[in-house]
Request: fold
Amino acid sequence: MSTASTLPEGRYGRSADERADRKLRAIGGVLGVALIGVVGWFGYDYIAGSEISAQVITFKAVSDSAVEVHLEVHKDAGTKGYCTLRSQDADGLEVGRADFRFDQDSSRLDKVVTLRTTARGTTAELLGCHPG
Reply:
């Protein structure tokens, strides 16, 4: 005789426990999927949301106190932000740094900006762009 047949059916809460386990698994699965969705949404928004990028197309030292920099800026239409540029002299010392704002509504801008320097700049480097 097996022990399963000797125990009265429904005794010790076995069938209720099985139902509770199924409910808990279903609730846990739904909450897990929801958590993954929320984390994914915030991650996507952080990486892809309101981004401004740019690149230096050309630059030219126009005097001992200025460098002209041609920038190509890509951003979401209506997004405002700024890009930081710097220039160095022949010895690698920083001779100029400035932020340039881009508040136009278009998503692509070609802009020539003038970076003021304390000595003749031989480079123009884009340090980064930020919304805001």
